[in-house]
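dumping the sequnces here before i forget
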Amino acid sequence: MTLVWLILIPFIGGLLCWQAERFGDQAPRWIALGTMLLELLMVLGLWVSSDFSLPAEGAVGAWTLEWQADWIPRFGIQVHLAIDGLSLLMIALTGLLGAMAVICSWKEIVLRVGFFHLNLLWILGGVVGVFLAIDLFLFFLFWEMMLVPMYFLIALWGHSGSQGSSRIGAATKFFIYTQASGLLMLIAILGLVFAHHAATGDYTFAYADLLNTPMSETTAWWLMLGFFVAFAVKLPVVPLHGWLPDAHAQAPTAGSVDLAGILLKTAAYGMLRFALPLFPEASQTFAPVAMTLGLIGIFYGAILACGQHDLKRLIAYTSISHMGFVLIGIYAGTELALQGVVALMVAHAFSAAGLFILSGQLYERLHTRDMRLMGGLWGRIRGLPGFALVFVAASLGLPGTANFVGEFMVMFGAFGVAPWIVVIASAGLILAAVYSLFIMQRVYYGPPADETPLADLDRRETILLFGIVALVVFFGVYPQPLLDTSAGAMQVVQQSVQQVGAMTGGTQ
Amino acid sequence: MSHDAVMALLAISPLIVVSLTVVVVMLSIAWRRNHTLSAVLTAIGLNAALLALLFGWTLGTVDVTSVLVVDDLSRFGGVLVLMSTLACVTLAHHYLEGYEGPRDEFYLLLLSAAAGGLVLVSARHMTTLFFGIELLSMPLFGMLAYTFRDRGALESGIKYMVLSAAATAFLLFGMALLYAVTGTLDFAELGSALSRDTGGPWLLAGAGLLLVGLAFKLSIVPFHLWTPDVYQGGPGPATAFLATASKVAVFLVLLRLFQSTLAFHQDWWHDLLGFIAVITMLVGNLLALTQNDLKRLLGYSSIAHFGYLLVALVVNEGLAVETVGVYLVTYVLTTLGAFGVVTLVSSPYVATGGTADASSLHHYRGLFWRRPFLTAVMTVSMLSLAGIPFTAGFIGKFYIIAVGVEAHRWWLVGSVVLGSAIGLYYYLRVMVTLFLHEPGMQRRDATHDWAERAGGMVVLGVATLVIVLGLYPTPMINWVSWVAGS
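..and the predicted 3d for all of it:
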């Protein structure tokens, strides 16, 4: 039942926030914070009490906890939840970033506070559902469901854009991109189910049953593409990234934190959990294409980031760049690379969330996100620029930060499989340094636009930022807890890829 | 009375009850005009008919006469027709309170139309098909033009009448041609005659004309041109009936025709139908994009939805019947929710001389901050129309895609996805309008006691059902698959 509660708590908390608005603006905020901390505590409790030792050779899954109940017997659909190291890490991340999102919008959101937190918590509930569901129908339901509150978050509390792009337009774009690609995944899921039905005569949406569905190579190829496109839109992979800069730029800070920190991770999670194990052969054939797309993403994101004036758009493009590394790591398929992907996902969640929170705080003080109007802030705000330096350093992958660990492991792990891709990708790191230094240079150094000092960080902001910095540095210096937790899950993924046989190399 | 006669009477007792109610309400009007009394009598009659329908479920398939056969599918259709009629009665009562002309006759028309729907879902013969369709449409002319001092309503009624008459002519001509060639009007016999010689040009012409007539009622492209105007102009309760009960009944008879009569197993036939389905969903969705009028938008969206439904007819095997059933249930619930909110916001009726209802989208700006629960209903309806998970609409869409994937009709499945993606745009637009802060615009609002009235409760109930069926669709699926299987 713990797993069910993990999903239900944010939903219930959201409803409470909505109704608590009548007791004033503070009530929903405290309830939302309490809800997310409770969620986080539950996951941490699970983390401490469970054993994530490596599964036996050839095991299908390494579930630490499982829960299932019949739901729609007509099609063999079950409410089937399970948790392993990977989902546990992701849910812990969700709880943590959820709490941060609540804290960072404490002063930013003043209108319709209850309804805002309803949407925020429901997004998180949907995301937790995505990480827990291992019935494909249920997974799809949560996958699509989390879009609705996100849409409202951007459309109702977003900022109107700099160049006439409206927040509603951005929200609609986000929704249509993800929903339409989600329907492609639904088609693929149904194709898989009917293929399984044709082979065995049973309707089932259960992950474990569908894993070894016999099907022709072309079928597998098309179905894999259906999954890949849905995940690629959300990750985002470059030709399908159109929604991301707008959505990030227009979203409120909490929305950006959730979007970059967690929602993008659902895509990587989906690839690791579903796309690779369900279609190992097709994925392996597809791997060079996917890695090339990742490579394009790294450069495209980094180059466009250099040309942005809008601080949040810049950070959004850097996300595209970082997700390129994630994509390469996933399709490299060696255990080291996959572990690196997990580390990179966690690290990116922290660094991107940190940068977005900072840009939110700058916006509260300067009422602009245009970097041409900033400059010289180092002397005007105490505290904040120092934190910015840390996150920028993390974003460019400086050793000692968790991002370095992730990127290094991905490249090291992928080198044996695709040396040239790694060689070219490492050139992308230089671009990362360039755009990161651009941020520092344009925003914090240079001649100040104005001499009046701005409000210092208050205690809430300082504690929040200190927390993230501590995590970035801690996992940069000692990433072992992360790696230990996800090792079992990653080994399962890696085995499913390795069964195909051709995936050799790496460190194995 | 023989056993068979008793069985037959029991089987069509819902129809009898509804017809009796017409008489009772008429007599009560003759005795004393009392709006509430008429509405209550109508509701009692419809509930009694519904009960009779449920008790008749044990009877199995009963040949009432050779032209009217009551089976589980017709009972299923009957439930949908009666339920939506009932919802329309509750909505109409509140709506008509503001109408200064005679109000009671509306219920007579509504009941007669419901009786037409009940005939139609049990039709097994061209005569009953024709009879049912006319009994369903004729009262609708009156209902749509009920508030005839408004230009919009009058236009809507007349437009529907003229075009409907044209469609009827097609229908009759088609039947005549079929009869001239085969010498029979029974669905099953026609079917076997058609399968024996499908090449005959007159047979094909007959079948085609028949299809045109029915396609008009379902507003399938290219016979959809009446839909937006009629939806926009007609009074809320009448439009709600047109969008739900009327379309469900006609679609079920079309399904029956496809199962028995028009089941040509030829590729070009399926390709043609598939093409119609594709253009119906695309045209419906594309035309809805630019609408600023909520009722017109819902009209176009219903065109698109019947395009999706056609996918099941094109496939016509495997899960097809079950898909039609599930989709119709979800469609009826969702549409009742959407039109219910529109009608509640427009209630009580206010004469304007143009379009009386609050159909323009700007009336709904910021509705959430005035009427949160009513807006929740509308939001749920929009999400369900868009097919978002955890609403009943998603289960419907899931079935449509499943049936397409099962039959490997990738073009159709692709168009459903494309249509849904386009559709999202305008559903989202309506949704976000509800939540935007209002500027000082002219606007309409529901009365303060909307939630305590029968109409309000029905609408809230419908929205709850949409959510519940989205979360736990198993009872609905079991019911429909049992109906489809028997």
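Chain A touches chain B through 29 residues (CB under 8 Å).
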